[in-house]
Amino acid sequence: MAEDIKQGESFEFQAEIKKLLNILSHSLYTHKEVFLRELISNASDALTKMRYYSLSNPDYEGKDLPLEIHIDVDEKNKILTISDTGIGMTRDEVVQNVGTIAKSGSLEFIANLSEQARKDSNIIGQFGVGFYSVFMVADEVRIRTRSYNKDEPACEWHSDGTGKYFLNPVEKEKRGTDIVVHLKEDEKEYTDKSRIQSIIKKYSNFVSFPIMVCGERANQITAIWKEPKKNITDEQYNEFYKFISNTEDTPLFRLHTSAEAPIQFSSILYCPSMNYETYGFKKLEHGLQLYSNKILIQSDCKMLLPEYLRFIRGVVDSADIPLNISRETFQDNRMIQKMKGILVKQIITLLQELDKNEKEKYETFWRQFGRILKEGVHFDFENRDPLAQLLRFNSSQCADASGLVSLKEYVGRMKPEQKEIYYITAVNRDTIEKSPYLEIFRKKEVEVLYLTDPNDEFILSGLHEFEQKPIRSADQANLDLLKDGDKKIVDVSEEPQNYEEIFKHLLKTVKVTLADRVMDVKESSRLVDSPCCLVNPDGVPSVHVQKLIQMMDSNYKISKKIMEINRKNRMIQNLSRMNENPSCQPLIEKIVHQLFENALMQDGVVFDPTSMVPRLNELMEELTKAVLGEGKKIII
Length: 636
Ligand code: ADP
Ligand code: MG
Prior knowledge:
single chain, alpha+beta, Four Helix Bundle (Hemerythrin (Met), subunit A), 9-stranded mixed beta sheet, 22 strands, about 40% helix, binds magnesium ion
């Protein structure tokens, strides 16, 4: 619908954009030249959309226009103009697309980046704030644009990149968009033709539309994925990677393949050398470029790879994909599903080979992307086994927190009598190593996997077993390892008289005292030094995981545990003796509650200090009295 544009209508930028512009003009980007990459990428997007629209709609503005990008300069007035014959924008679209940040969270993300990371021009391309980067070099920008929609008048947007922008009606004959950049005084270099050409070579060489700089073709459109591998140099591969991933790093590895059956397609896939998600805790947008016989149909096709491979960049080209496939039908398209299956298998095979032949490189990969890849064990049932083999964990056998162990290695060095694979979960290695659950494993020299990523336990417990060995959490009550544990650990010679009997009494007292705070109280066969610990009944997730569930659901109650008591511990032995004397009961009760809460704290469950602190004070009072000989003398 046509709309009248009031002369000189002025608008305030969304507050987010003002902040963004401020950040951009002060700290972002060491390479300002990337603004050109961003403008060309927008032009290319607009052209791709136009081509896509034209495939199924006969009636639109400027039917005969070639799909091209033109860059022209006015050296005298320091003006650079980037024009495209893309889809253009209506007045409302300009307000919508250029006046607001569409991708929510982008600004927040950038504002939270460290100073160093902000300067990294690799990062900006990932977060969809490309257009505004032009204000690093411009003190005024005009957008003249005319939509493919015949009924819409052309319109002009202009701004100096501070608080406001203006909209005006404008005469524009051709469909598409001109970005007119008035360069700042000291940014004259961007009117230099050879400087522009070299920037295009560097970042935009593979844009699949002609880029004409002052009438001369500046990019080569080579579909390198269609070439035989031997014709392509490493440099070309890397250049292409930089182009499609909008970064300047070199990929960790690449995969150039073509398939003939069941469907014909060629692809080049790359694994970046770093994981940008680790900067910002949020999921990256992902997607491969999808071509149909060298014609780009979608630059962010998410359907070609599962979420857990979202870090992979690349192109896929298949003549079997219809040019006018709509976004909605991608999901149901059998070809796409098949290609996806093949691509996933190819990537997994490559990772397996890396794992086998270049262990160090695989570990480098794992440190960057392991946390994403492992989601696959959970979600991709079909490839679960090979993915499980690719998993890595830290373990009690590693010298420090950086060591990595595979499940295969673990199984390979299991003790002959060991039947289960054991893991323990906590926030970090230090905490795990202090855990009482580990005591028996140390004593028996059984390896334990150390899980420090919150997802690990979900993944391992979902896996249930590996090479027919059940996977168990070390804090479970009935571990195979404990079957014959007690006899070996307990050295009866050091025990007090009739210990068997008085220890049993103590267990009863503890159970009565704690009542419904615990599920049961038992003699422990796993503890060596600690007086007690809390273990989980079978089938209940570890406390660590329960705490995560609680963070998401505040009504969730951490399940009750079984308290295990170490009969060998000196304090427990003393308590057993005191327990035989009725006058000690009040003190024993306090100690038992305190022991229980100590064990909870050891599991990282924070307890209400208002009841604990007075109790601790009372206990300390008893202690000081005992030391000064003022307490009740009890003969036991
Ligand atoms: P992104 O490209 O990641 O969406 P940008 O800040 O680069 O973010 O651009 C914002 C939006 O402005 C684009 O999504 C698009 O809708 C619109 N836009 C920018 N340049 C053009 C252009 N040359 N032709 C048509 N639309 C454009
Ligand atoms: Mg953009």
